[in-house]
Amino acid sequence: MSDLGSGDEGSSSQKYHQGMEQGSSEYDPGQQGQVEQELATKMLQIQSKRFYLDVKQNRRGRFIKVAEIGADGRRSQIFLALSTAAEFRDHLSAFSDFYSSLGPPNPDNVPEDGKLKSEMMIKDNRRYYLDLKENSRGRFLRVSQTITRGGPRSQVAIPAQGMIEFRDALTDLLDEFSTDEHAYKPDLPEGRHMHVDNKNFYFDIGQNNRGVYMRISEVKTNFRTAITVPEKSWPRFRDILADYCDKIKQPSTTGAVSGGTGQANVGGGGMSSDQPHPLVGNNTQQDTGTSLK
User: Fold this and answer.
1) Which residue of 13, 49, 125, 149 shows the fewest CB atoms closer than 10 Å?
2) Cα–Cα dist 190/103, whole Å
3) What is the pTM of this model?
């Protein structure tokens, strides 16, 4: 089956939403169990194909899911961070101008691989290949998404005649939602883990309506507590830790560290490190980062 034939006679939106529930609909398929919110959607009927452009948001930020729906209800989809979607929008303009400059299709002058023009976009561990192609059914733009760590390639095929309509719909969504992109970072760092003696420490980066934060969790058997550190205070937090590291490495001339006990007391006031800090108060399972100021 050709690329253009994969989406003939687009299915109903009911089949589409049923399909979304059956598969992973998150920007990063490797992150499971994320709470996802749909902010907006647009549907495009281009020739015999139906496309859905969904603006979504999860803990990693905002992104756009592009889905191509086949006649049998099966879907093809790719995911774009807002910054990648903006770059894709610009490429659509360039591809459309190139397509307009082409003459009528000539079966005797088609490249062996069918490619008329190609571009590539890179976003972190994702690569996007844009290929304007021609086959017996006509000309179309194939957009393929790959992930460097492995996994299947996903792709959609947009009929060439619909590239401008697709670009305009994408522009409308970007104009509405990319104005707040600085507050929503789609690619937060992965969590880290550290094991010390009989304790485990977890460093997780999260995001809410107050901004980005780091949650530092201390976990032992039947014990769990955490603190949250807003992004704006990370440099100061780092500097304080670095200062203590430097002082601990230096030979002690007074025989005491800060409190005169010869030990660094993290919690202050003689508190055991196995007790929650009085500023934390909540169990990590209840800590969603909303304590950010």
Assistant:
1) 149
2) 49
3) 0.53
